[in-house]
Amino acid sequence: MPTIRLQNATRRTPLRIATTALLAAGALLASATIAGCGRNASAAESRSEVPIRKVTDEIRGEEVAKLVAPPAVPAPITRDYATKVIVNLEVVEKTMRLADSVEYTMWTFGGQVPGTFIRVREGDLVELHLKNAANSTMPHNIDLHAVTGPGGGAKSSLTLPGHESVFTFTALNPGLYVYHCATSPVPMHMANGMYGMILVEPKGGLPKVDREFYVMQSEFYTKGKYGEHGLQAFDMDKGIDEKPTYVVFNGAVGALTGDHALQANVGERVRIFFGDAGPNLVSSFHVIGEIFDNVYQEGGSVATQHNVGTTLVPAGGSAIVEFGVEKPGDLILVDHAIFRAFNKGTLGMIHVSGEDNPKVFASVKTGVPGMKGE
Ligand SMILES: [Cu+2]
Predict the structure, then answer these.
(1) Strand partners, 213
(2) How far is the CA of 156 from the centre of ligand 1 (A)?
(3) 199-210 pLDDT, tens per residue?
(4) CA distance linking residue 127 with residue 139, whole number of Å
(5) Which one of 19, 62, 276, 295 has the fewest CB atoms closer than 10 angstroms to its CB?
């Protein structure tokens, strides 16, 4: 009986197998095809040699990166050549809303939490300017996980209040990466809001979608209990014990609900660039009422999985999820470590407008007299 390997199945290489083994082989092939569905590209990559990347692209011209506030992201890159991208980031310390009647002094990249989304193309030369506002109380820096180089740029970018640092790097690896402050005490800087994401688009770009959103999960550790009013101070002991008071999307309870809900229409394709800043917890990211058609696990450049309900995102890591929207209504974003969603703030919403599609879902009757299903 010949050995049947996954790559045979996914490549559909003709197999010479005995007639008596056909039934078993058929079953194996079927399961291997299902397991390997959509993994051909990743399987091919996993078999390739580890590259020593060289900077070979000619840099043509330069541009200043357009920076927009979350949950928006800059538009997809359409150029087919490498350029110099100048990124201007300013660290600003400011008191912001953490929840209703709860404030917190955030340390931010660009004046919001999460920090400004950076979008470049594989092969680009990035010139990063990090300013630290004159009224800051602390030095700050930046470690971008997209950087090949010492500390992700941390030491080169250590910046005192009122000063500016500049360093350059070539975006060698495509993917979605977290960036964060790496100034001591690092956990405190991160717990105070100093994180964001950088997308290095592969040279061929990402598949076209209709909507792209930027969502980042993180924890806050406050002296007061969840919901306690007033300006809250950072609690280092809670941080060390990994017992957050708040776990939120985009820097505050309610940042993506109500008037701030994300919007989409039936028939559109949605992509979420999802990051987990931690500082401590991994995220079990789920969208109630939807299924991820594609998941780029851990923010890699290949869609490695399809038809996923919940994807695991490490602290300091990311995932790209894509799905078509087939039914109107509200989709709910959660960390499915579910106490966090109901008791600590990890709730977001995508409001989907459009014509009803009862073939996809229809409520026939509910078991509560007088109550209508959706
Ligand atoms: Cu900092």
Answers:
(1) 272
(2) 14
(3) 999 999 999 999
(4) 20
(5) 19
